[in-house]
Amino acid sequence: MQKKQLARSALMTFTAATLLVVGYLAGTYRASATGSTAVATASATVDKIDPKTGRKVLYWHDPMVPNQHFDKPGKSPFMDMQLEPVYADEGGASGIKIDPGLQQNLGIRYATVRRQDTTDGFDAVGTTQFDESKADVVQSRVTGYIDHLYASAPMQRVAKGAPIASLFVPDWLAPQEEYLALKRGGMDDGMLIASRARMRAMSIPDGVIASLDRTGKAQTHITLSAPETGVLTELNVRDGAMVSPGQTLAKVSGLDRLWLVVEVPEALALQVRQGMSVDAVFSGDPTQHFTGHIREILPGISTTSRTLQARLEIDNADFRLTPGMLMRARIGAAKKVSRLLVPSEAVITTGKRSLVIVKNSDGRLQPVSVTVGNDTGEDTEVSSGLTEGQQVVASGQFLIDSEASLKSVLPRLEGSASPAPSAPAPASTSASAAAQTYETTGKVEKVTPADITFSHQPVPALGWGAMTMSFGKPSPTAFPDVKPGETVHFVFRQSDDGYQLTKVEPVGGAK
């Protein structure tokens, strides 16, 4: 009995010692694991700090393939170069920061979004025409013959009172000789008055009758003159031609006032109103402005040009304009409306939307999607997206695109108001480079289903020197005959995933 109790005590003591040892080992392991985790965390934290600059790093990337991010520094898998860091103070904020000196070198200009009272209108094209309401005609009231034609051809300029044609009228001879005979015969005044009335009825001018009384000689010729200064738009007779009463010999159109006939697009036909103001500019000299108000809107839409014609009078007292001139007209309403305006050159139209590059308070350049309205000439109305007083880039937008790789930033505007971090890329990766192909010669180092690695010669168009890098294949089965060790000539282009091959062919079969 006593032996059993001793054995039980020994077993309990052994069990307690075993538990103590197990607990100690577990505690030691946990402390070690915790310490290792802390060390790893500290190490990771240290890895995210650039030891050269002390700035926090978001990620590392290859500038030639900016969409591929890496958690640690090292050599690029795409090219024979080191990965570059993207810092938090560059990629974490909205927009893109460009060095002020570089902005000056690029010639970037800024403009302020301003509010201004403008008229609600649109642009149209018009042509000058003769004012038909001011045209005069030269007609014959008697039967006669063109004795001498002073005007030589239509569209000839004439001054007021200038002779146009000399007309021989044989029927005027008899009544004038009769009048002279009555006067020489001493007839009473009643007979002379009746004779004068007969001559007037035959369209003999009062001047000819007065000359008959004064000189006593009959006249059978009359000179027809221009009633005003203008252009002979019609000349319907020639020397020696016979004319009849009521026949139009010529038509004179004045130049001191012209019509401007504006072609209004069918889509804007309902916006045109009589009395709207028009500011017209001659295409050959934009500094000269001609103003007026729409006098009438001509009925009907042209079936060929699908335009509605509106007509107005413009002053041409100094004869600067001639009919047929093309003019750009700004048609505006009488009432002015307050609008936000930016320079027209500041708006980037991509086809699907319009963008403006805004300068934020911290100096960063942020692309903003805007809704544009009417173009007022040098300025464009902005309906939404901007506020008064903001600074926008007025010139150099595409140089900014090349320098800061806005190509990767602009698509994010549709998905988020604050674009994701994006690193600057060199000018060689701009949109202009993506639209073309490049070629060089190199040695095949490695072939995989996804890409081919070359040790290639320089590519001057991209500013590359000789290097080793990988190029993506359009499909896993593309270029099946390419083997490592071959010297090939290859063509590639830039894509969203990097640089992709389009053509690979051996160079003389060299190995």
UniProtKB/TrEMBL annotation:
Record key words, sorted: Transport
Residue span(s) of domain CzcB-like C-terminal circularly permuted SH3-like: 341-400
Ranges of residues in domain CusB-like barrel-sandwich hybrid: 136-252
Residue span of region Disordered: 412-437
Residue span(s) of domain CusB-like three alpha-helical bundle: 171-220
Low complexity: compositionally biased ranges: 416-435
InterPro entries recorded: 3HB_CusB, Beta-barrel_RND_2, BSH_CusB, CusF_Ec, CusF_sf, CzcB_C, HMBD, MFP_Cation_Efflux
Domain Heavy metal binding: 59-86
Family per record: Belongs to the membrane fusion protein (MFP) (TC 8.A.1) family.
UniProt cross-references to NCBIfam families, sorted A to Z: RND_mfp
Protein name, as recorded: Efflux RND transporter periplasmic adaptor subunit
Organism: Paraburkholderia dilworthii
Lineage: Bacteria, Pseudomonadati, Pseudomonadota, Betaproteobacteria, Burkholderiales
